[in-house]
TrEMBL record:
PROSITE patterns, sorted: 4FE4S_FER_1 (PS00198), 4FE4S_FER_2 (PS51379)
Gene Ontology CC entries for this record: plasma membrane
Protein name (database record): 4Fe-4S ferredoxin
InterPro entries for this protein: 4Fe4S_Fe-S-bd, 4Fe4S_Fe_S_CS, Electron_Trans/Redox
Domain of life: Archaea
Molecular functions per Gene Ontology: 4 iron, 4 sulfur cluster binding; metal ion binding; oxidoreductase activity
Annotated transmembrane regions: 66-82, 140-161, 167-189
SUPFAM superfamilies tied to this protein: 4Fe-4S ferredoxins (SSF54862)
One Pfam family in the UniProt entry: Fer4
């Protein structure tokens, strides 16, 4: 359905239920879309915008991420003197990502990951904010990155064990190199580009899918009100996992990066029904905050 047809429908529907200032402003905005007004520029949308989850929780989370970023730099610095600290950090974070993944999907990656805090809190300031190519988040790319990381770490640990037993150095090397890659990707693409191929994130994604398959409740998911969505695409511009929540309103959606449903380079296509059931969703609510028509919601309980 075209944007204008959709806007026209919404004008009719909202008009019949028009009460309150906000509804009136929405009706006016939809009418301008229907009539071809270039309303879908940033100023027009901002004029009618409300922040449904602006209760301070997102700002608190961002502040926590900045602290996590500082903690991550501290951990790296400490590991230069005591390399085993890097080993504890890598093993601890990977175990936490997988453990939390079984229950809450990729919640860990947004709320608890120290490197994620560095990327969101600081690398974001230098990022070009570009989408990655589709092949980048393809399951085969993710598998290749995971196997390469495991292979290099395993080889390094074996060599260190044979030499002098200083097992911390291979962990420090892995942490340093992967962080450098994450920062470069964050600047060239967007701050969380690395998180689409991070081995711990991929494991978290996979474990959650398996847990769901075994009957566990899915993690909290963003829901889309198909009647309110006007397909403006803004939610997709703020999603750090390159998900386009508005496309999950109804009908078919094409996912890239679905580890158990790879499809070709063009991704895997499936039926959806108003729920963003993409296992890479970080449950960050950035899309909810961005949506100009309050079509998105995330129940975090
Ligand atoms: S969900 Fe909201 S932000 Fe996303 S496309 Fe629909 S109206 Fe736009
Ligand atoms: S909550 Fe929204 S913005 Fe955040 S990762 Fe999920 S789909 Fe993307």
């Amino acid at each position: 359905m075209s944007l204008r047809t959709r806007a026209s429908e919404l004008v009719d529907r909202a008009r019949s239920a028009a009460t309150g200032d906000r509804t009136k402003r929405l009706v006016e905005a939809f009418r301008r879309v229907r009539d071809g007004d270039p309303w879908f520029d940033k100023r027009g949308l901002d004029a009618i915008r409300r922040r449904p989850v602006d209760d301070g929780s997102i700002e608190r989370r961002r502040r926590a991420q900045r602290y996590l970023g500082v903690a991550f730099v501290g951990l790296l610095a400490a590991a230069l003197w005591y390399p085993l600290v890097a080993g504890v950090g890598v093993v601890g974070c990977a175990a936490a990502a997988v453990g939390v993944g079984a229950v809450r999907g990729r919640f860990y990656c947004n709320h608890l990951c120290p490197r994620g805090g560095l990327l969101d809190g600081y690398v974001r300031l230098f990022s070009r904010g570009k989408r990655t190519p589709d092949w980048f988040k393809h399951p085969l790319t993710r598998a290749a990155v995971g196997l390469t990381a495991a292979g290099l770490l395993g080889t390094g640990l074996y060599a260190a064990w044979r030499q002098d037993g200083s097992l911390g150095v291979p962990f420090l090397t892995m942490l340093g190199v992967s962080t450098l890659v994450a920062v470069v990707l964050g600047v060239v693409y967007h701050q969380r580009a690395w998180c689409q191929i991070c081995p711990a994130g991929t494991l978290s994604h996979a474990v959650h899918r398996v847990a769901e398959g075994l009957g566990r409740d899915p993690a909290p998911r963003v829901e889309v009100d198909a009647d309110a969505c006007v397909s403006c695409g803004r939610c997709g511009t703020v999603c750090r996992q390159e998900i386009r929540p508005g496309q999950y309103a109804d009908g078919e959606v094409t996912d890239h990066g679905n580890v158990f449903s790879p499809g070709g380079l063009e991704g895997s296509t499936r039926e959806v029904d108003g729920v963003v059931d993409h296992a890479d969703c970080l449950q960050c609510a950035a899309c909810v905050e961005e949506c100009p028509t309050d079509a998105l919601s995330l129940d975090e309980e």
